[in-house]
Amino acid sequence: MSELIFMDFVHCNKALTHHFSAFVFGNADFFNSIPSLSHTFHFRYFQGELKEIYSSGEQNPINMSGYIVSALVPIVFTLLLRNAKKLKKRGVPVDVGGEPGYTIRNSRFPSPVETSWEGITTLAELFEQACKEHSDKHLLGTRKLVSREVDVTDDGRSFEKLHLGEYEWLTYAKTFEAVCSFASGLVQLGHKKEERVAIFADTREEWFIALQACFRRNVTVVTIYASLGEEALCHSLNETEVTTVICGNKELKKLVNIGGQLDTVERVICMDSEFPTSASYRWTVFSFADVESVGRTNPVDADLPVSADVAVIMYTSGSTGLPKGVMMTHGNVLATVSAVMTIVPGLGSKDVYLAYLPLAHILELAAENLIPAVGGVIGYGTPLTLTDTSNKIKKGTKGDASVLSPTVMAAVPAILDRVRDGVRKKVDAKGGLAKKLFDLAYSRRLSAINGNWFGAWGLEKLLWDFLVFRKVRAILGGRIRFLLSGGAPLSADTQRFINICLGAPIGQGYGLTETCAGATFSEVDDTSVGRVGSPLPCSFVKLIDWAEGGYLTSDSPMPRGEIVVGGPSVTLGYFKNEEKTKEVYKVDERGMRWFYTGDIGQFHIDGCLEIIDRKKDIVKLQHGEYVSLGKVEAALSISPYVDNIMLHADPFHSYCVALVVASQHAVEDWASKQGVAFTDFADLCEKEETIKEVLSSLVQTGKKARLEKFEIPAKLKLVSTPWTPESGLVTAALKIKREAIRKAFSQHLANLYAS
């Protein structure tokens, strides 16, 4: 059997066979060691036969060598490829203008990419070209709602459950027709070119159509998260002087609540065909379908933008205070779209993309402009209907991924963490042989990915994929071939789990709204973890010294410093906020625009970036919420039990923890009243009831200060010894030295997250 399997290989590689024959026969010790390589499936299979042939003294060296070559060549090639990967330069130094630093560009592109399509300079042109090239092909898909039910639990809580059917599709031609009709409809309603439209809704088919329609009339779109609070919503609409808002029923209710505070809104277009009619509306309300219909019967010619025109003013979720609007030109977004196309392997018309992330986020907006450009398909879903076990999916019915079977997806770490945790819970619940088999398969694949050449490759990999991981891959439809992760750091554990169980590479990206998500991206063949890849083809990434924090480009073994991003994806700045724009945006003597991120990074020898710190004390948690450490510390220091406090937020967790220097007087007074016995103050600070009391006080203090739940520490460590300038933990002005405290209490912080 083995002879038949490898016959063609042997006959086609006679020269190679003879070289290996000479080596093996001249090195009996090496050959005798081959059976010990039986850790892999291949060698277990051939071990007995190799021994038998060798000991029999068979005189057919070609046949015998064939077996040897068949076993050795994959090993040698694997080692050669692995060495090649280690030596591969993904990013290379480049000479640029601006502030001195250490700058890296993508190794394959000597200058930043602005467009990947000849003659295309705007998103409107890109979409029109795609619709002409793929007119009869499916483009946008939305699932039909079969039924809506309410489940009531034993404790009286109610949950909405949806039964969703198959996807219903619009072709490229029909989508383009809808876009043109809606664009004409806007004009007929009285919306002028110089006025702005806000899209305030969850991701859905109508969102995309409205976006492209605005582009055809060169109308700037203000994007607002559907989850944005009333104060931030009011600020965003008033600051940009929006006259038309496009939203869903849920968002319409929010608008009604703040109607009296909106200065410029004249009309609202509701994406849902049925919406509450009310005499209290301060504006005219239209249905999305009616606007399309009016435009269809009264067409208006397109008024296309140029590259430098502002396509989107994107309001961030706001790290502190009110959100800022980032102004993105068509050229900015097109540069990111063009760059991503060059690094996603084989992206084309056979790809199916599952869209469920907020389109008000640049990651999703860029993705949904890229997929049509390559002739792909977009099927819409939601985070709550994504899988068969998602919260809103009726039991026994299918989630979005199962029905759509996507090939590519964008994801945030929180979603991937849920997939990982869900799989592990199911495996643990089954126990027995099933769990042992899963653990064995996982450990074998992990060994292989981590560079152990005795790990599970070849036929053994196929075996584990069929027996174990095929069921896991079915969770996301069974056809995922590439995942793009962004928005927050992805933990090494989750990255490896997804690599193995879904059998797909994860491209982890780093970027900001201010850079149109364009900065760095890990390549498909880079199996390392904890890094965010080399610069995208549209970007230069520079590190500059931050002496105050101790990060220098001259550091060894790697240059370190603040990350500065330059190139065509860097946006114009903040809307009506010139002061902040001048603070973080710079134009160098060569005319290149740079954005100062405030993040601290280091470059590895292959040109890949690793994020290691944050210049400011603002941290993004695992689910994307921003925490301003200083703001929270100031609010919680009011608690009578707090002498000093340092909040700690880890991007790989969804909650904060705190180190609290306890006020000895207040804590001992409480203990005396409660009858809590203790030997000394240090002993009192270790007691569970003391920690519980102080934590309760912080929760109450935080609520009074109107802090969000995620801003209030979930756990804390009580410190009995005051922080002083002499200890090096605070400055002479008694301001905390965050990095010094973090190092001094690193084990305590680790224990808080581990417990």
TrEMBL record:
PANTHER family: ACYL-COA SYNTHETASE LONG-CHAIN, ISOFORM J, LONG-CHAIN-FATTY-ACID--COA LIGASE. InterPro entries: AMP-binding_CS, AMP-dep_synth/lig_dom, ANL_N_sf. It catalyses: a long-chain fatty acid + ATP + CoA = a long-chain fatty acyl-CoA + AMP + diphosphate. It comes from Hibiscus sabdariffa (roselle). Its cofactor is Mg(2+). Keywords: ATP-binding, Ligase, Nucleotide-binding. Residues 164-575 form the AMP-dependent synthetase/ligase domain. This is AMP-dependent synthetase/ligase domain-containing protein. Belongs to the ATP-dependent AMP-binding enzyme family. Pathway: Lipid metabolism; fatty acid metabolism.
